[in-house]
Amino acid sequence: MAITIQKTFDVEQPPEDVWAFLVDPERVVDCLPGAKLLEEVDERTYRGEMGMKLGPIGVTFTGTIRFDRLDEEALEVEMSGEGKDEKGSGSVKMHMESRLEPLDDGGTRVSVAQSINLSGRLASFGRGGIVQNVADFMFGRFTSCVTKKLAEG
Fold first, then answer.
1. Which of 18, 41, 87, 137 has the most crowded Cβ, counting Cβ within 10 A?
2. 3-state secondary structure of 83
3. What ranges do the domains of the chain cover?
């Protein structure tokens, strides 16, 4: 089952600062509740895990995330990832595109389009909107954390 998520948020920092933050997995992982960076496979590929609660069950996905395209001039990032639940409940595949846009006040607008494909027993949670609710919650936590960390410098 595929779920599409599109979100936008603004930060007060310039695009180059936001870019440096968003392409640094060690900084980003601190803003993703339940996420851990396990190892750098190569300069664009990382192994990690993400734990979350979907409805009545808790899942922990272990897998990889990869920067497929980093275009600093256009301020665009494409990433893909996949993981499996350690308890065998299912798997997830993700594709995400992010774009930064300079704002007139010196800040930056961040636009994110993400496609998440769940399989196995976990796919049933997408039908009831649980995955969308979890994604909305996590995105809110992520944007608050990014905004705070960028303001701290």
1. 18
2. strand
3. 2-152
CA distance 49 to 149: 22
Alpha-carbon span 63 to 90, nearest angstrom = 12
Q: Which two tokens stand for residue 76?
A: 């665009």
Please state the CATH superfamily assignment of the domain spanning residues 2-152 in this structure.
START domain (3.30.530.20)
Edge-to-edge strands, sheet with 108-120 = 2-11, 108-120, 90-102, 76-85, 57-71, 45-54, 35-42
Q: How do residues 62-119 score in pLDDT, each as one tens digit? A: 999 999 999 999 999 999 999 998 888 788 899 999 999 999 999 999 999 999 888 8
